[in-house]
Amino acid sequence: MINVGRNYLFSDRIDLNLSLFLERKMRGIIYCICVAFLFLQSVYAQDVSVVIIYTHNTNAVFENCDCPDNSYGGLEKRAAVIDSIRRAEKNVLLVDCGDMLDIFENHLLHEYIVRAYRMMKYDFWTAGDQDFVEGISFFTQDMGDNIGQLISSNIRINGKNAGQTNAIRTFGKIRIGLTGTIRKDVNKYLDAKTKPFVTFEDQVNALRPVITALEQKADYIILLSHSGDMRDTEIAAEFPQIDLIIGGHSQTLMPEPLRKNNTLITQVGESGHRLGVIKLDFSGGKISSVKSRVILLKKEMKSDPNMDELIKAYHAERSKK
Q1: pLDDT < 50: residue spans in the chain
Q2: How far apart are CA 144 and CA 267, in angstroms?
Q3: What is the pLDDT of residue 251?
Q4: Mean pLDDT for the chain?
Q5: 314 pairs with which residues across the strands?
Q6: Cβ-Cβ contacts under 8 Å for 123 (sequence gap 6 or more)
Q7: Alpha carbon distance 46, 282 (integer Å)
Q8: How many angstroms from the chain centroid is the CA of residue 57?
């Protein structure tokens, strides 16, 4: 006699064991997929592009002069280009390396220059000697962190640091470290009412602890420097940890960045005629490529309508004086 019940029971056990086996197998596969996904996510989170837009030595040139032989620059053109880059790129840093203002006092014009910088929403800036032309109060209250975050390793006002000594901006898992510096001897350009309250400390001594700290917490170090191209080369030799020096003061036009060992050094000329763009590509947490370009701001280029309105307001107020 055939025991049908036992055969069915045996068959059920086989089905149950097979189901348990397949379930465990699937759990293992799903676990492996999740681990692989998290690993790849971690790796690709370090594949990031960051675009640095940089300016310096605006020298209070507010608008394109529409001159026959020199119709370049103007904050209405600059603002439009910055906006177009921000629309096209995900990760953008906008920085300035000082001398936004003119060498002579012109309070109304300088108020409008500062308002224009605020409209463009700069992320970071470091100061030049001309930025003190309207005095300490204007520098600390009207400019300061109102333009963007002021960073400087060696400017002291009444014995205290002007702004932060350094900053970190994170994109994905990439940490961009920034600091600023101004050459010590440009204090000779400060006027008598300002000089007693402002000190530019030795650049190397001031930078050393800041760069050491940034090495521990940044994947890429940028120095905003108001020192001149020759001095920037010396700083690069002293601090090979710096990846990029964006300069000012000497108003040197560099179509391509200069390389000093592993450090890139760049400037884009005078009076805000141009702005510079550097694209940093990171792969696996390391810099993989650097692409740079210099954009000449021509009168036929598109203007930012909000900046146009600000320029009109300036001329209207100026005409009343």
Answers
A1: 1-2, 4, 6, 8-9, 35, 37-40, 42-44
A2: 23
A3: 97
A4: 90
A5: none
A6: 93, 94, 95, 148, 149, 169
A7: 7
A8: 16
17 to 13, 25, 55: CA distances (angstroms): 6, 12, 70
Q: Residue 293 and residue 180: Cα distance in Å, rounded?
A: 22
Query: Which amino acid is residue 233, in one-letter code?
Result: T
CATH tag for 45-316 (out of 3.30.70.1120, 3.40.50.720, 3.40.50.12780, 3.60.21.10): 3.60.21.10
- The domain limits of the chain are 1-44, 45-316
User: Residues 274-277: contacts with CB within 8 Å, 24+ apart?
Assistant: 274/72, 274/73, 275/53, 275/54, 275/55, 275/78, 275/81, 275/82, 276/52, 276/53, 276/54, 276/55, 276/246, 277/51, 277/52, 277/53, 277/54, 277/85
154: exposed, middle or buried (Cβ count in 10 Å: 0-12, 13-18, 19+):
buried
pTM for the whole structure:
0.86
